[in-house]
Amino acid sequence: MKITLTVNDEVHPLEVEPRRVLADVLREDCRLTGTHLGCEHGVCGACTVLVDGRAVRSCLMLAVQCDGRSVRTVEGLRGPGGEPHPLQRAFSAEHALQCGFCTPGFLMVAAGALAADPTIGEDPDRVRALVESNICRCTGYEPIRRAIVRGSCPGSVA
Amino acid sequence: MWSRREDERLLTGGGRYVADLVVPGCLDAVFVRSGVAHGVLSAVDCSEARRVAGVVGAWSAADFPSGLHVPYTPSAGLSAEEAVAGREWPALVKERVRYPGEAVAVVVGEDRYRAEDGAAEVAFQVGPLPAVVTPRAAADDSVRLFDGLSNVAFQGAAGEPIEESVWRRAAVVVEAEYRQQLLMPTPMECRTILAVPGGDRLTVWSGHQAPHRLRGQLAALLGWPVDRIRVVAPDTGGAFGSKSAIFPEYVVVVFLAVLLGRPVRWIEDRMESMLTATRGRGQDQRVRLAADADGQLLAYELTIDADVGAYPHLGAGLPMQTARMATGPYRTPRVYATVRSVLTNTMATYPYRGAGRPEATIALERSMDALARRLRIDPAELRRRNLLPPESFPYRTPTGRVYDSGDYGAALDLALETLDYAGWRAEQARRRGDPSALPLGIGLSCYVERSGGEPGGLHEFAGVEAREDGTVIARCGSASSGQGHETTFSALVAEELGVDQVRVELVEGDTDELPDGVGSFASRSAQVAGAALRQACELLVQEARARAAGLWGLPVAEVAWSGGAVSPARGGAAMDLGELVKATGPLRVEDRFESDMGFPFGAHAAVAEVDPELGTVRVLRLVAVDDCGVVLNPMIVKGQAFGSAVQGLGQALYEGIPFDDDGVPRLANGLLDYLVPTAAEIPPITVKDTCTPSPGTPLGAKGAGESGCIGTPAAIVNAVADALRLADPGVLRMPLTPDVVWRAAR
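Output (structure tokens, whole complex):
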């Protein structure tokens, strides 16, 4: 089936089998391997990307469902000049990653929420809810929580 | 701008894990697995699978050479010839299925979708046999996994048997039984292997902790010299001990890549790993702990029935780690621990973060709290009376370890102070007088662990190379799976050589880069590989001075080294390393370093509130004080301590594998059934450290990163037992689900 995905502002005309999940198409057809598959049943959230600005588990969505829609992955988080997203800097500053496998998913969950509401970092409960949505086995989450606060509120240190 | 060298690529989608590697023409392998835990396999038929579009081939054991089996792991005594004798682990099931998920066939396709299409067409039957999933059930041999052989695959002991008179004469003897439940390490990246033939060589990419070990195992499997195989561990998405072995799937993938002459990969998915990834822990324990009326420990006996899974090849000897560490941090004069490793219908047990030490600590520390209750001595005071004092080191334990150094009391004091122990005791007393308040308990856990490895595996290889452009390449046999080696080791080498960090690059996890290597496990990288790198730096400096001496016609003693440059000691222009290489040719040193074992220690403390009506546990505070000697990178070590404390919390409260009567785990919903902690479960945790350098390693570093799995579980369980004032600590079987706690509270 012919579809068109706009991924990180780049148009990808694709021929995909209807059964292929979005994560596989991003990784294999678009060669964007920053989106990781941690469980393939929608629990861990490592594969989270933004579809039309909303965070989705790309292991649970078919690529054909995204025909004509806009997808943002971790490769598209940098700014137009190539500068890192504040969340990317904050994750590093707070040691919010160790092995890095779950990291793109947490970044995209947070980036989507922050884009929808730039004040989210000021609400501890909402930040906590964001962190609760994904699984990390290395960090124990607290550094991720701090990083989201730090990346959401320029100048703040949680 | 980036805290760790790894961060930029991992935060921008530039990481390269095995599944991210693009290899033209690569085939995907998918395994067909038994849904039955124990049974007799008959009639595997792959013919329909072979007709599926995009399927390149399908194989059952009958299509393979009969000798294609999984080798056992002799490293660190994990397994032994006597344990595996007569017990072959075929790469694909031949006649007998021994654990649920064991592979009966493999299908290779042009991509994973096609390989899975083919796998769905493989027909086979397994005639079920009774399954045994606990060591106690398996040990009587009423159901045998291997016909004619006992399920008891290995036995061992540490220490000397304790005479009955010791128990008879003791003022108090605590007796209890504990279950260390099976756990799943659950790195976020499951297992991966990609085998790429080229010329007369094979390159194997795998998220792996010990690439040189894997290279040797694969060479033996293929009957090739090791130099025809290159193993590379690229970015690896966590391991926690579980990625240092060779597995049936790896044997199959490598065999097929060579057979087909094409790249083949296996990217394990989570549902597969639920059944077939190695498990950790798995011990049924009985303890006796004797003390006099003042609480001085007299004797401790630990009897272990260990669940080592269906095949003894990976971890039959692992429970000996628990036996040898049974003494713990106390000066108990008599300690005796025995191990019986029993086969069960479960995937093999293998090291998982802590690897034998959590089992030792949890048994002893739960018993210490029970003893304190019996004697009506404050549990902190009871520990103080028995902890080895700082002047006792080196200390040879009754179970054969030689502890290097420690100030166990200082760690306990810092934990109590950080927790506000007295304040929480007051709050506990207040609640005990208030019928409307939920009961609250305080739990302590003092631990000592072992790092670096076992004799025969306490060494590592390292090399340092100076290049004409002034850069330095450091190489070592470690392999990072999230520990930030590029950051820590590059900084270490820069400091040793006195050069700017940006000039140093670390290369590891590639067997073509260094002739030999051991790997990253047993908390060994900083302690052993770090020391090996330091020694290599010293050799490089010696060689640089010798070369400069030759160049300048000076005695070596008159060549100084400072800031990455040689200079005549009596004055004259300095020559930077890069210039020296230009003048004298390539400069590369390699060396092998051997360490002693390290014995990190610490004290963890938890406060928990229990709702006896609902059986729920709310951890209000957790304090972890760890001492791993000299710390090379405090932020990285602290991060690992925190993360491992959360894994310890998982063992105490959430993680476990329930089995149906047919021996199949009830994990059909994956990570919705196997409950690794999420952010919603994290209590306020404070991580602190003390520093007692190890005299056995030149850096003074002991191992880091496993402390929370070792120290935290008993602190939490003890807090719950304290809240409920339980006389028999054994009724709290981990994980402390609401069901377990509710029953214990009755």
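Chain A has two domains: 2-75, 86-152.
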